[in-house]
Amino acid sequence: MSLQAAIAKLNAPVKDLVVAVTENGTRHIGQSAKEETEVTEWLEKAVQADVTSEANIQTLNATLVPRTYLVNNQLSAADVAIYGVLHPYFSKLQPPQYYAVPSLTRFFDHIQSSPAVRPAADTLAPAFTPVTLDLENAPKIERKAEPSKKEKKAAAAATAETEKAAVPEPSAAAPAEKAQKKEKKEKKKDTSAEDSKKKAAKAPAADEGEPVPSMIDLRVGRIVDIMKHPDADGLYVEQIDIGEETGPRTVVSGLVHYIPIEDMRDKFLVAVCNLKPANMRGVKSFAMVLCATSKDGKEGGIELIQPPANAKPGDKVYFEGAEYENATPLAQLNPKKKIFEAIQPGFITLDSREAAWINPETKSIHKIRTKDGVCVAPTLVGASLS
Known about the structure:
Blueprint: H1 3-8, H2 14-22, H3 33-46, H4 54-63, H5 77-91, H6 95-99, H7 102-113, H8 118-123, H9 149-166, H10 175-202, E1 218-228, E2 236-241, E3 249-253, E4 268-272, E5 278-280, E6 283-285, E7 288-289, E8 291-293, E9 302-304, E10 316-319, H11 339-343, E11 347-349, E12 355-358, E13 365-370, E14 373-374, E15 384-385
């Protein structure tokens, strides 16, 4: 079935909304035949009678955990159609019910608030009247920390003991042979333990030594939702998709007085992802937005650092240079060691507006980039990054 044929099968007023937003499916359908096929498949699902059954709602929620949109990384007819058929369903839900499907709720609210969708939806009122969702009081998703090496070792040891207990001793083994095997095993265990202690004593911590920029975990993100902080006039609370299965991260940034909220919606950016989570006026922030500040100070302007055009949420952002490109960032920066603060003075935008880090000792320039290209500031030259 063709894309236009699938749109024609949609029930009114969903069909009217899809046609208005996507210009009859010709806008935002992706660049490949594969993506167009995926959009068509979603449109076919949108006309099914059981699209809002409990099983399908749970499936949709699971599908959207790592995604902002249903197909690729841009709005399509699929998103508009699914939003349209979900509208009557979400209109009847109470907070505990939509809190139970957080990824689907985030998707629904993002689409209904989209600048591309809202004007068309308003012309079809009351069919698509905005649904008020109390996301501010939604239960926070707990982000489990990676288990430490000690915890992993203990778990492995417990598993080994369980497996050992499950294997019966050979009944025909001679007592002398058993004793000999046990003695060898004990010696080997002692030697291994001693070696491990020596290695542990010699191995430095991952964040020891001089701070280097590759310790910082930079990734491409996209703002999928944004609101002003309820208790701070100068702060935004953003939901930023950085390609994680747990869904978008909550991020608080002090940009209200410098970047209008309309210029923040749906924007791609660079996020600092391994800072210790910080409580900002009652809202916990799980990352930081990397911005360029004019060399004349904040009054001269602040801009979001932009990844290259083909970037996707979750793409690794790294520093050019053999010593940095393939390095693994720290899981979390230790705030007591002030690693970011030590490196940050070297962050700058070049005359080309490209973001870079300049080594203070060698003066070598290391551009900040993804696999697709260098990250840039829209207009600022000689700006500091933070």
